[in-house]
């Protein structure tokens, strides 16, 4: 009986304890709810950014920083170092975004949101190298930032101006533990208006700035490609953007880490916005987009040239209509005579006769053209045959040979026209198509070899035809190379 009373007593104590714990739980929950809501006042986390207090007398311009670098380089230094005791700031706007993976551990900033007042305040940009990924989470496109230059170094990397930490003659990344001491966010986020410009109008001053190209398209020979997902795309994919208004091109550069790398390039024509820059080796100009939303190619009316393809013939004709091996030409003089039209549309370089031995030998006397170190902003040169009447015989063929001295950014095309009037003034207004079957030496070919065009069949064409060898330089005169031409023969 005594044992039973003890058990009942323990049960009573446990029951009272449970009731007390339940009471405490309800009381705690009530207090918590009351603390969260007070007269319908819902408090949100404070996400405001305190505007950095930057002394106005310590702020300098992008132009002044650029001049400081230029002065250092004139004095024989590769970089300009801003001393730790020198309190100095610049302010600008972020124009790059790594959200799509096409930029990595870098911010591109320019000094203005638009291109207003270009005379007194030229639009300029810098690349800021930072050892931090996902920078767009903090420094999004259009965000105004202040950069404290004290302790940083200004230099050039991959051909563009860059800000970072000095390491000898190099500019290295600002490290993750310190970058917020140098790059400060403003509350202000603005709309960035790109500078609308033609490809040929771009200059070094436009590097690291946001631009827009209009009435352009991807070259027709690359429409079957992705942005950067091809087997031979290593680190970056390079695709050719061509203007529909001028004979100018620029390279679209896409990282193989971009999330749109495997998408097919746009098939139509239109406008594209991006950051004007240089390739990794500083060989040629490139355009880098933040995302595919920067491309609006919505016009079906592409500006591709007419193409003529009769195929490759099995045998060369035995009756000659026109030929030239240039052996009668005077070396180092412009090609002339024999019915040729040697026309310089742009620049100072035309097709000239040359002779050379060694590893890059000519075939006796050959014709060549190139804009390398010409100091010409643009080079376009034509070498056009006399008229060939294709209606008086059948089975016409064309053969020639080409070589190059590192053609690099330059290009040679084999064109034809049936409506050119034979005058120099009419060349640029005539309709020129492409003879697509001929092989023209590529930049990847050995510079020491000559390559046969193949026996180009012309039998499917009719009328009076002019055939042109057209050379176009990219405008990068230290990168453009040379093409050589010889042993031309048109037969039936």
Automatic annotation (TrEMBL):
Give the range the annotation lists for the signal sequence: 1-39
Q: Where is the DUF5689 domain?
A: 58-295
Which keywords does the record carry?
Signal
A Pfam cross-reference name = DUF5689
In its UniProt entry, what is this protein called? DUF5689 domain-containing protein
Organism equals Flaviramulus multivorans
